[in-house]
Q: What sequence folds into this?
């Protein structure tokens, strides 16, 4: 499914075709949590477009993914990307969770911790290919 096209064309779909929007919602929520970072971002854009008048969908998504914030989570880059996109498209919804996300997780767990040394990286390795970046470096 091309989420980018859906994000541009599905505005207000919940009003016009509630049954279609209802079928899309669980799939979009799953993609936002389990997809690639790009898919997670696009899934949030689609949710925002489809459910413009129903911020509860984004609230539920944000509540569930904030609970997944853990440096060892295998899909952490996608989760952070989805949260960032929610902050962009729905800042009032994000505001309630901003302290937990920004101060308690991003600053405390990601930016101030140096888990790269634990991964066996040599300090002299300043440059590498993007696909060789550690998860922490990618998040930073």
A:
């Amino acid at each position: 499914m091309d989420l980018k096209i859906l994000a541009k064309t599905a505005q207000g779909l919940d009003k016009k075709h509630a049954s279609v929007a209802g079928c899309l919602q669980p799939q979009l929520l799953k993609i936002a949590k389990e997809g690639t970072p790009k898919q997670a971002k696009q899934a949030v854009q689609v949710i925002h477009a489809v459910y413009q008048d129903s911020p509860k969908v984004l609230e539920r998504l944000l509540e569930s993914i904030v609970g997944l914030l853990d440096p060892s989570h295998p899909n952490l880059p996608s989760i952070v990307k989805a949260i960032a996109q929610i902050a962009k498209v729905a800042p009032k919804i994000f505001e309630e969770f901003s302290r937990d996300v920004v101060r308690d997780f991003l600053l405390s767990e990601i930016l101030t911790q140096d888990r790269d040394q634990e991964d066996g990286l040599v300090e002299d390795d300043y440059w590498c290919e993007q696909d060789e970046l550690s998860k922490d470096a990618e998040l930073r």
Q: What stands out?
A: The longest helix spans residues 18-34.
